Amino acid sequence: MEEIRLYLLWSAFFIALTILFLRRRSSKDLPLPPGPRPLPVLGNLLELGQNPHRSLARLARIHGPVMSLKIGSIHTIVISSPSSAKEVLKTKEHFISGRQVPDVIQSLRHHEFSMVWSSQNQSWRYLRTLVKTHLFNTQSLDATQPLRRRKIHELVAYIRGKNGEAVHIGLAAFSTVLNLISTTFLSIDMIDLKYESAQELKDLIWGLMEEAGKPNLSDFFPFLAPMDLQGRRRRSAVYYNKLYDFLDKMVENRLTTTAEEGRRTNPDILDVLLQLSQEDNSKLSRRIIKCLLLVINHII
């Protein structure tokens, strides 16, 4: 079965390469910055190597701080100097706001409701204002300073409690940051540092982040996306569904608690979002709230 799947994968890939190779180039090339000469079909994929960050630094020394690469069939502009980055991200930000959405993020149409990936329409501006007003204002950040200090102390205590055992610092730090954010916005710790058996949620989040971070043929050759040759979109859809189920339970529990006990004295972000969603002509749907919570918790 595995051999058949591998055969079909490579067959589809080579058919796609043939189609790309036979396509006639546009009579007028785009006015792109300098860059290495791309290979037919693959573009500059092979030049990225095992360490893309080092390869890009090496290429920038040759072609300058603003260079163009062709990653598969996608033209990519690489910025590698502070002055160029400032000009692009601050002065000309509107020209690059419509970036390509990775295929994994399009699972279950997540990108259509996400503040990070949706286009700059009226809904996006509303969410941006909401986040700026309720999440990242000075008062909210100052109020969470004791919480940040407490979470750091918990991390230190966890490491000391290992008594010489090996500690995966990356996962421990990831769990601490996630708990800090979830406690701030949801009033719960999403991950228990002490109990490995309670790490299903962490594995779920980590798995989704890995799927989004790995190279995907569908991103390099968008016409292959409907086939999902590597299965990344299918696996991501499973992760998203489980995360949405988790957040649905949280929302339902909060609504039930609020109905029985009334509004809390110190509302968190979930309380604020639910209150706003119940106002007349509110633009906040349950789906948008869940997507916003995923973004808040650095889940994508």
Automatic annotation (TrEMBL):
Pfam families: p450
Keyword Lipid metabolism annotated: no
Keywords, in A-Z order: Membrane, Transmembrane, Transmembrane helix
Transmembrane segments: 6-22
The UniProt record lists the keyword Cell division: no
Top-level lineage group: Eukaryota
MF terms in GO: heme binding; iron ion binding; monooxygenase activity; oxidoreductase activity, acting on paired donors, with incorporation or reduction of molecular oxygen
Family to which this protein belongs: Belongs to the cytochrome P450 family.
Protein's name according to its UniProt entry: Geraniol 8-hydroxylase
Gene this protein is translated from: CYP76B6
